[in-house]
């Protein structure tokens, strides 16, 4: 997702009630902070449509949005202005540090929505479904924890199916055209709507530990 640098973003983020500047502070305490029993983490939240919609649709569950780009994170929190909810927070940092922020078994669901496919072979290890990331997810997920992935990219989805299998995740559900039918239980991201309008199939998979 390419967004021009927003000069006001860096100063804007700390002023927002949902923004977490030091996620390590809440390691092992996220459910207590959000007053929930179920904790979701969306990695690569973009402009926040999914994070906002799902936290409103499921107010009894906790939702953490994670976006590394400061300008994009600011746009996400801009949408949340005047809509503060205790069950959601936002982090603007890199997913490579997940181990520093969450205890083993603390997360219940990890969402990967339209992640960067990193198509060049030399960048394979940067994909959020590469084995090193999957090993971290396995560690941080609860016993019944799961990863839910949506993408428009065929090659990334094919790659991910194999990586999850090789890392001993169990495939629970798979869709090759997820939006062919209505799924009101799952919010539509800004990227997703774009591809739906182009009649492009949306791939979706759910994996358990």
Going by helix content, strand content and strand pairing, the class is alpha/beta
Strand order of the largest sheet: 1-4-3-2-5-6-8-7
Oligomer: single chain
CATH homology superfamily name: Vaccinia Virus protein VP39
**Helix count, per DSSP?**
8
CATH architecture: 3-Layer(aba) Sandwich
Query: Over all CA atoms, what is the radius of gyration?
Result: 16 Å
- Encode the helix/strand succession as letters: HEHEHEHEHEHEHEHE
Low-confidence parts lasting 5 or more residues at pLDDT below 50? none
Brief synopsis:
The protein has 209 residues and is of the alpha/beta class. The protein is built from eight helices and eight strands; from the N terminus they run H-E-H-E-H-E-H-E-H-E-H-E-H-E-H-E. The protein has one domain: 3-Layer(aba) Sandwich (Rossmann fold), CATH 3.40.50.
Structure description:
- This protein has helices at residues 9-12, 30-34, 49-57, 70-79, 98-101, 131-140, 154-166, 190-197; strands spanning 19-20, 39-43, 62-66, 88-91, 107-113, 141-151, 170-175, 203-208.
- Strands 1-4-3-2-5-6-8-7 form an eight-stranded mixed beta sheet, sandwiched between helices.
- It is α/β, with parallel strands linked by helices and 209 residues long.
- It contains eight helices and eight strands, in the order H-E-H-E-H-E-H-E-H-E-H-E-H-E-H-E.
- Strand 5, helix 6 (131-140) and strand 6 (141-151) form a beta-alpha-beta unit.
- The protein has a single domain, classed as Rossmann fold (3-Layer(aba) Sandwich).
- The model has no long low-confidence stretch (mean pLDDT 96).
- The radius of gyration is 16 Å and the shape is globular.
């Amino acid at each position: 997702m390419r967004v021009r640098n927003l000069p006001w973003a860096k100063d804007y983020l700390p002023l927002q009630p949902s923004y977490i500047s030091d996620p390590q502070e809440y390691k092992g305490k996220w459910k207590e902070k959000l007053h929930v029993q179920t904790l979701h983490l969306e990695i690569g939240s973009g402009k926040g449509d999914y994070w906002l919609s799902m936290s409103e649709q499921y107010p009894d569950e906790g939702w953490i949005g994670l976006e590394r780009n400061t300008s994009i994170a600011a746009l996400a929190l801009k949408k949340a202005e005047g809509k503060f909810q205790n069950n959601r927070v936002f982090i603007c940092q890199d997913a490579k540090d997940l181990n520093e922020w969450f205890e083993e078994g603390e997360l219940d669901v990890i969402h990967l929505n339209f992640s960067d496919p990193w198509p060049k072979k030399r960048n394979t290890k940067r994909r959020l479904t590469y084995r090193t990331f999957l090993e971290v997810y396995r560690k941080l997920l609860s016993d019944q924890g799961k990863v839910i992935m949506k993408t428009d990219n065929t090659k990334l989805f094919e790659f991910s199916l194999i990586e999850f299998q090789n890392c001993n995740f169990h495939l629970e559900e798979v869709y090759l055209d997820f939006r062919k039918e209505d799924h009101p239980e799952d919010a539509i991201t800004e990227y997703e709507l774009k591809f739906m309008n182009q009649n492009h199939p949306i791939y979706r998979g759910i994996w358990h530990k």
